[in-house]
Amino acid sequence: MTGVKEKSLQEAELWFARRRDVAVREAEQESFDAWCSSDAQNASSYAEVERLWGQLAVIQGSQRLRALIEEDQRPPVEQAARFRRTFTRPAVLWLGLCAGIVAVSVALLFPRGEPDRVFTTAVGEQRTEMLSDGSTLRLNTNSSVKVRMTSRRREVDLESGEAAFDVAKEPARPFVVNAADGAVTAVGTRFLVNTSEHKVAVTLLEGRVRIDRESRREVEQLVPGQQAVYDAGASGILRRNVDVAAVSSWLSGRLEFRGVALAAAVDEANRYSTRKVRIGDPRINQVSVSGSFRTGDVEAMVAAFEALFPLRAQREEHEIVLFCRGSSLNAGTR
Predict the structure, then answer these.
(1) Residue 247 maps to a domain
(2) Per residue in 49-75, pLDDT tens?
(3) What is the pTM of this model?
(4) Residue 248 domain-assigned?
(5) SS3 content of the chain, % helix, strand, coil (to 5)
(6) Following DSSP, what letter does each residue of 82-130 receive, concatenated?
(7) Which domain holds residue 87?
């Protein structure tokens, strides 16, 4: 290994350890981005560290390793007594040699008292995080999650907003996303979860998921292309087919509207911008609109709607208000 590559790997290990702490501060994120872009080797080294960390998940399935780990976690006096009863002196020496390996495995795979990891985004911000099991978490605008990883369960609390999950396959350790009064369980799956007021929408892109609402004794399963919607204040899970490309368009920084009501399009666009759009005339709420717009660019969206529909925009300092242009709407716009 060349000196440059070795130095890059060492730095990548430090960055990886730092970024596994509670949410990375913005200044650290900028420094990390600058480090990655300063040398192509740096980005490659960090990807290698992530890959190796993901492969550690395979070790967790080893019953032999788990037995050794459990032994390592016993009080030292109890360990010594058991070793004297069970093993000859050569075996004790051999196990002593292994103790360091087991201790490292414990530290890496089953950290004691590891705190929950919290990730948040501001309005208009998106964020991608690699979790310790190799899964990927993508947070949408104005969102917050709490992540807990244990030896038996991978759990995420979606406290607000929306997130996309690309789950590493690990059947022995389910991946569960808690949203309102429901739990979404996945194994090797890509899916989205959106919370809006009291409603939760789960959209499956790939694989399979199960939605459980234990308090209401409701269970639903999805296949790719389906969405489940439930209300925290009411019974019932609605399952429906959706336009997956439109629902997941935010992952590529776009908003795709295909024949949706203007009011719904405005609500969605407002999630990404501090400058809001408001409908000033209830007659235009149900105008059907289509288009593709960059997230956060409400000005471009409003300009397009003005050009296509009998609408006029009144631009104020902190908001844009939409009105009907003229005394009535044409039938074709309803």
Answers:
(1) no
(2) 777 776 665 555 555 555 554 554 455
(3) 0.64
(4) no
(5) 40, 30, 30
(6) HHHHH--HHHHHHHHHHHHHHHHHHHHHS-TTPPPEEEE--TT--EEEE
(7) 3-109
